[in-house]
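check this:
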Amino acid sequence: MVAFVAGDLFNLYVGFEILLVASYVLITLGGTQARIRAGVTYVIVSLLSSILFLASIGMVYGALGTVNLAQVAERVQELPVDVQILLHVMLLVAFGIKAAVFPLSFWLPDSYPSAPAPVTAAFAGLLTKIGVYAIIRVETVIFPSPELNPALMVLALLTMVVGALGAVAQADIKRILSFTLVSHIGYMILGVALGTVAGTAAAIYYIVHHIVVQTTLFLAAGLVEREAGSTSITRIGGLLASAPIVAVLFFIPALSLGGIPPFSGFIGKLGLFQATAAQGDALAYVLIGAGAFVSLLTLYALVRVWNLAFWRPAGDVEGDETRLLRAVEEAPDGRDAPAETRTTPRLMTLSTAGMVVVGVALTVFAGPLYSVADRAAQNLDGSSVYIELVLPGTTSGEGAP
């Protein structure tokens, strides 16, 4: 919330740091070797991003004498173009690491799967989205000019494609979902990179959709791990018969993430494609084609999970004794013991079911929600509205003290 309501770059930085300090503890919760290793990587990358962000704040203050977003937006146009581009790029790199934009997304697929399922679900829903939110603030308030929009579009394209290809190549549900998380960050960056009201509105709606759906899928993956003792699709099967509720809780958000009509994922992608088509140039049509292709790859990866983990009979997988032995070997401390030795807490199932209901509500109430996103995008169209709200009556480059 601190990051969301921050009106200056330094308080935005403070919000990020509060969030990250808590995440350092959560990602290593349990203290297993894999979690500590992933936590070290996550901490190092996060600190690097924070250092870049802090250096960017120092450079902005040195150049403009303020870190207030409205005053920065007023004064930045007075700087030489090359200085503007330098500040712009530094902020984008810092936020790009936090948002897991390619090629700055290498840390995410190795960090998220090792954390406990509820922690991974919270991370998937919040951490990268705050990075995207910060990019929206930069692109709509501080640097609404279109100079870097083509570069952002190319990064969005690469993020979508590389993440989807990574998901297809995985055999673990958590890693598949981690790569799809990276991939769908590309859709959000695409909406922001368009620099139009329609693009920003579609990006805002898609962010809300992705927070809910991706969180739900990671919670469902936690239920699979509880029921089957593993999230490897090569070692589990028959969950449709043994855990039909879990099957349904996974199936519905998977359809939404894959962009199947009429779910919210389809609505968000349709809005993004329409906004992109309005650009009318060759790059726009390449992005639409890539977005459709990535949506198919996402659907393929999730259907593969469904076929192997849920639809495939349990008898087609290796014997129960072998699977149990491997599960015990993978969890020597007992924290990740196989499903045969524990029960699934009812609260986990109810929480996941509640998120599924919220995801369905995004479809049922898509019209009003998209209208809210559109009004937000209109207020973000250029920095003049924001400057007038923060500095009433300001018509020149002279901001309030």
